[in-house]
Amino acid sequence: MSQGQIQNQSLGSSADVGQGLWQACVDQLAQELPEQQFNTWIKPLTAHLSEDDTRLTLFVVNRFKLDWIRAQYSQRISGLLETIYGQPVKLELVLTQRENALPSRESVGEPDESALELSYAAPSERIVAGNRNRLNSALTFESLVEGTANRMARAAAMHVASSPGQLYNPLFIYGGVGLGKTHLIHAVGNRLLAERPNAKVLYIHAEQFVSDVVKAYQRKTFDEFKDKYHSLDLLLIDDVQFFANKDRTQEEFFNAFEALLAKKSHIVMTSDTYPKGLLDIHERLVSRFDSGLTVAIEPPELEMRVAILINKARSEGSEMPEEVAFFVAKNVRSNVRELEGALRKILAYSRFNQKEISIQLAREALRDLLSIQNRQISVENIQKTVADYYKIKIADMYSKKRPASIARPRQIAMYLAKELTQKSLPEIGELFGGRDHTTVLHAVRKIAAERQQLTELNQQLHVLEQTLKG
Prior knowledge:
The protein is of the alpha/beta class. Helix content is 57%, strand content 9%.
């Protein structure tokens, strides 16, 4: 949203303009940051724009969060505010009265690294503030849209929630960023607690486990550490790839892992890759990860993306017409987080301009995203990227040669062209040496089916997709 768009909207007041400016900033950060970081640090913030429109104040609930936001996110927030508003906006962080009787104002300057270090070492209980299990009660099986992309992982997770400590222990869920892994493991915890309110459940991000290990070593409080982790009925741990190169952490997680399995407690983990694809993780830990059930969550298919958009819009108090949902779903293909980010932009644009949601409005709200997508991903770019990856010539993409070393990459390129561009099957066939659209359809269906079954192919496709999306 440009400065002109914000100033010309009919909402009028500085407060409304401030909320619009901050919401646009939040929408962008939601797409840039991992879900756990966004929900912890950015989502709870509230904002106020000064009457002269030169200063945006963010209200933060405690000193720990204020120091961390100032050090980690203030520079990016300031840059976004200037980009969105069209001129510099001074960023100010303020403690709300929940911690101090009188709010403390701090303009953003250079981060105090020593203060940050002390804050990061503060007990994690300050963050959770009464939510000892760290679960987000909104992330349930009921609020998770089911589709081909997550059906197996969802079924396994539901089994674990109803019969913990039995089959699928540990349950290892992997997939790319923003596909719903975190939602799924929160759903396991919430379902178990609904059925067994006294169960000892803990959701934690791998970075927090690392921090807890460091504190236990510094303070010599390993008895407390073991009491916390070895006595659980269900441990839900996100992004275990963060254990890479952290030998002490891996040792302590191995000990906790063994202790929990010995008492028939359940462990559910997520990662960005399958166990044997993890780098710099001890082999004995990888073998434990791989000893239960490993399932993938894929990028959502078109129908699933449409359902997510309609359901999410409804939960936000808006109705998204099906044709608009299809338009957005066809253009935002990578993951659920980007899909939700696109929806937030559309809803904000609709409210600011007081217009009904339509395809034209969606096109205007997402014009930057659509411009980047159209500029970066073309069939020609896909052909070059796939050819480079599989070490064949680009000319082989158009040739009539049929050896597997060439035909396989060609089929993969056709599949990616269908997934990542707006080209029709005949148009794709034409760009692959004048092939018939049925040849393209066969390739797309073949690769899509094999992706569900072959872990190695799935990983190769993830790498290619991330490379193409920049």
